[in-house]
Amino acid sequence: ETGVTQTPRHLVMGMTNKKSLKCEQHLGHNAMYWYKQSAKKPLELMFVYSLEERVENNSVPSRFSPECPNSSHLFLHLHTLQPEDSALYLCASSQDLLAVSRGYTFGSGTRLTVV
Amino acid sequence: GDSVTQMEGPVTLSEEAFLTINCTYTATGYPSLFWYVQYPGEGLQLLLKATKADDKGSNKGFEATYRKETTSFHLEKGSVQVSDSAVYFCALILITSGTYKYIFGTGTRLKVLA
User: How many C-beta atoms surround the C-beta of residue A33 within 10 A?
Assistant: First the structure.
């Protein structure tokens, strides 16, 4: 399997639930990213990991908790979310941080609905 | 601050029509410029890029030229197909002193009618 794979594709959760989004890449990339895509808004960079170390956290609420156990896997743990957190969550990777000048490889996203 | 501005959509065209989607940018440095495409139910895919002034990126019949004098990177295609219906995102990256900033536009939806 190649590329960036995200699971699940769709997720509906209540505000008191705890769930996790998973991202996996088989490209040998060393940098991975979480983005939030909301309607009519630019993509919002949430977290950046390089060689399993978090290098950027863009003022994201603590109800979102990332985890990068190795360079191929990235998780986003969710708890006590709000309805405004409903969005498409995209995972991306690049060879390394500076290789973003060559562009990202994105996954297909997880469509999250908070009820 | 640094930003990317795209024309609002949706853009609706008939098959084989000429396409232009405008993109302009504001940047303090010298960015690289990108177009990404998002097909329904999918993530973003890199469509083309240009790294310096007057560079032309091209892919799948789409083209965009890096115009430093007008700070623009307009996307064009001579003859669109129904399969081109998607959302198109303009983006820039600025790398300075080992740090980077990646900025996306809000996206322009293209609908191509048979």
Answer: 25
Which residues touch A46 (CB under 8 Å, ≥6 apart)?
Answer: A33, A34, A35, A36, A57, A58, A60, A64, A66, A76
Substitution target from A9, A10, A21, A43 for chain B, most B beta carbons within 10 A = A43
Using a CB–CB cutoff of 8 Å, tell me whether B26 touches chain A: no
> Of B46, B49, B40, whose CA–CA distance to B84 is shortest?
B40
Cβ neighbours for B97, distance < 8 A, ≥ 6 positions apart = none
d(CA B16, CA B19): 9
A61-82 pLDDT, tens digit per residue, is: 999 999 999 989 999 999 999 9
Q: Are A51 and A72 in contact (CB under 8 A)?
A: no
Query: How far does CA B113 lie from the centroid of its chain?
Result: 21
Residue where the block lists tokens 């995209």: A90
Q: Is B1 on the interface with A (CB under 8 A)?
A: no
Q: pLDDT tens for residues A18-64?
A: 999 999 999 999 999 999 999 878 899 999 998 888 887 778 999 99
Mean pLDDT of B80-89: 96
**B43–A106 CB contact, under 8 Å:** yes
Residue B37 and residue A40: Cα distance in Å, rounded?
Answer: 15
Give me the residue label for tokens 């601050």: B1
Distance CA B50, CA A44 (A): 22
* Three-state DSSP class for residue A79: strand
C-beta atoms surrounding B12 within 10 Å: 12
Q: For tokens 């959509």, what's the residue?
A: B9
Q: Which two tokens stand for residue B36?
A: 């990404």
